[in-house]
Amino acid sequence: MGRKLLLEHINVPGINTFEVYRKQGGYASVEKALKTLTPDAIVEEVKKSGLRGRGGAGFPTGMKWSFLAKPEGVARYLVCNADESEPGTFKDRYLMTHIPHLLIEGMIVSSFALGAHASYIYVRGEMMPQIRILERAIAEAKNAGFLGKNILGTGYDLELYVQPGGGAYICGEETALLESLEGKRGNPRIKPPFPAIAGLYGCPTVVNNVESIAAVVPIINEGGEEYAKIGVGRSTGTKLISAGGNLKNPGVYEIELGLSCEEFLYSDEYCGGIANGKRLKAVVAGGSSVPILPANLFLKTINNEPRLMSYESLSDGGFATGTMLGSGGFIAFDEDQCIVRNTWNFARFYHHESCGQCSPCREGTGWMEKVLHRLENGHGKMSDMDLLVDVSKKIEGNTICPLGDAAAWPVASAIRHFRDEFEWHVTNASEAVTRNFGLAHYADPLTKAEAV
Amino acid sequence: MKVTIDGISIDVEPGTSILNAARQIGGDIVPPAMCYYSKLAGSGGKCRTCLVKVSKGSEKDPRPMPKLVASCRTTVMDGMEVQNITSPEVLEARKGVVEMLLINHPLDCPICDQAGECDLQNLGFEHGSAKTRYEFDRRTFNRIDIGDKIQLHMTRCILCYRCVFTADQITDHRIHGILNRGDHSEISTYIKAAVDNDFSGNVIDVCPVGALTDKTFRFKNRVWFTKPVEAHRDCDHEKCNGKVTLWYKGEDVLRVTARKDVYGEVEEFICNTCRFDKKKTSDWVIEGPRKVANWSVQSANHYETLHPLPVLKTNPALIEANKEQFERETRL
């Protein structure tokens, strides 16, 4: 049984209200931080904890905070990125729905650490219930004196605002989020300058994921070193994984990083295996934008070591045989799922969500979607696979923001690992529209890599 | 600050972009730019044709940059080393970008007024491939008139945002912008409002393709049949100094544009009166012929720069037949 830091009290009735949350020891970190710690000490504590950004990129949070420029007389902002719209990821929504005060507590501590006096939670527009929940929680916290002027008599002022977005995936990219928050079209900015230098309204800004900010609470409560003991290597602490797809028990799980993939997938404590007694075919380990892996490569790395749920182990093997932890959107596919159809679906999503600012992503995502649509519907050609790989290479790395990469990786990896299924869609076109390719050899034990 | 581009070193001011440093060197090593416009603040970074490889970050931090960078928006560091045409990776990426720009472009150059002075045409000629791999319908839009002098043909647009920046910075207010997103996005006015401003005509000059065209010139002539002449007039608009290029066909001024430099950027923006209403020679003081680069198709009609074709030089019979042309070349 792994330790739960964020979701420890999730099953306490009424935990979404201030009274119950406070009774369970909530807001202790605010008292500790504001009364006994200096802002720099909090940043140091977060650095020591080794907390890495939970939004997808995995950049160390403490490092990000220490990069924040601190010019005299210029406001600084903390913005919480709750624009969670990656297909397969729903951990932030779960956290905000059931335990909103954890986020607010984390926001207060983090804002204090960064010296921000106005902080924003940018919530995706579709999450209207969560916006109401957060606003209610903010009002409760304000009534209890944890927000507003002179918090707990320490002289620290903080206003917290919830800003609904328009529901665009691109606004989850931090600079696009800031543009949108400023009331402009949500186009990503060209970096540099990075938000730590010139972010919201040209002021130094830190943008953090909901889960990263929530994780600051246990770090302050227990101390950074204590937090760093959980996990493995440079992947410290716990992570929320939103498990979906053909699982017996889909849902949001808090795992200690370093849990083995096999245990996460098959133990009854977590996902409980594949639903309806079927076999696992493929896994998207961290949300739609990370490379997809066949079952055998997901459970074992290419060197035949068991794969762990951690930043390093999942990316073991690079893009050739590895994937990424990403934002923790875990999607399992059973033997009846069609990888071509799924890849097309992802490509369709990225085509729809590309902002249209830079040409490779704007034109390339649409092109890939059209080719995949043709393949899925039995009009494909053998040359299409090479074309897709080539187009994805032309997009990858050549765009302003990571959406281009996110659109290219799933397509490139699907063709890398499931090429025979794609080819079968061309050679057996009429059959492919009526039945699926099946499991084939995707769960076979890995053969030793041949020395070249 | 010293920066080396493709092995050529130059000292530039701090804060200069790689692209501008390359332009100071000049020649083949200048990356092409479809969306960057030096006169418009905030432009650039979108089209990705100017991608270059930074093989050495700076003297202090010699690590190379992990990805190709947009040279128009990356400032130089002291001791930076940049590879443009010497890096196969850059040429490959640029070829990819050109392909992407062209997949939804109608390629209607034979009936497009921009043909002959089109940045995309030049770019495609230099970096594109002869055949497309794109086998689907291209996106199309209806033509709309924005104001009585400008026509917008979104089908040809490559979404460089230059006209949006122009309207933002040159005119006193902007009523057009980008609607929608992804490959559905389009330049449009808000509910067909007419663009009506003294400087609105400049959006035609900044457009790198034929998406925004001058309605007073549409289908009048091909640019390579016209003769550019530099001229000026005393313009009473306080922000316009009346320095233009007149495009003659015989006796008639077919169109008036701002003076464009070798990178297709205007030297100074001109007002709509100069551009649309003054089309008589008597309105202008003629300064002299406009220099046109001899790689440009526009110079095809200017015999002083037309050299005999190489094929003529190998055959004595042809040399004899084209004697006059060879004599002219040696005389000049």
Percent strand of chain A equals 5-15%
CATH superfamily of the largest domain in chain A: NADH-ubiquinone oxidoreductase 51kDa subunit
The overall pLDDT of chain A, averaged over residues, is 93
Shape estimate of chain A: globular
How far is the first residue's CA from the last residue's CA of chain B?
40 Å
| Poorly predicted ranges of chain B | none
**What's the story with the biggest beta sheet of chain A?**
5 strands, mixed
CATH topology of the largest domain in chain B: Alpha-Beta Plaits
In short:
Chain A is an alpha/beta fold. Chain A has helices at 18-23, 28-36, 39-49, 61-66, 91-98, 100-114, 128-143, 174-181, 210-222, 224-228, 261-266, 295-299, 311-314, 318-321, 339-353, 359-376, 383-395, 403-417, 419-427, 429-432; strands at 77-82, 118-123, 148-151, 156-164, 205-209, 231-232, 235-236, 238-245, 251-256, 259-260, 280-284, 292-294, 308-309, 329-334. In chain A, strand 3 and strand 4 form a beta hairpin.
List the helices and strands and how they pair.
The complex is a heterodimer of chains A (452) and B (332).
Chain A: H1 18-23, H2 28-36, H3 39-49, H4 61-66, E1 77-82, H5 91-98, H6 100-114, E2 118-123, H7 128-143, E3 148-151, E4 156-164, H8 174-181, E5 205-209, H9 210-222, H10 224-228, E6 231-232, E7 235-236, E8 238-245, E9 251-256, E10 259-260, H11 261-266, E11 280-284, E12 292-294, H12 295-299, E13 308-309, H13 311-314, H14 318-321, E14 329-334, H15 339-353, H16 359-376, H17 383-395, H18 403-417, H19 419-427, H20 429-432
Parallel strand pairs in A: 1-2, 1-5, 2-4, 8-14
Antiparallel strand pairs in A: 3-4, 6-7, 8-9, 10-13, 11-12, 11-14
Helix pairs in contact in A: 2-6, 2-9, 3-6, 5-6, 6-9, 15-16, 15-18, 16-17, 16-18, 17-18
Chain B: E1 2-5, E2 8-11, H1 18-25, E3 51-56, E4 69-70, E5 80-83, H2 88-103, H3 119-127, E6 144-146, E7 150-152, H4 162-169, E8 176-179, E9 186-189, H5 202-206, E10 212-214, E11 227-232, E12 243-249, E13 252-258, H6 272-277, E14 285-289, H7 310-314, H8 316-321, H9 323-331
Parallel strand pairs in B: 1-5
Antiparallel strand pairs in B: 1-2, 3-4, 3-5, 6-7, 7-10, 8-9, 11-12, 11-14, 12-13
Helix pairs in contact in B: 2-3
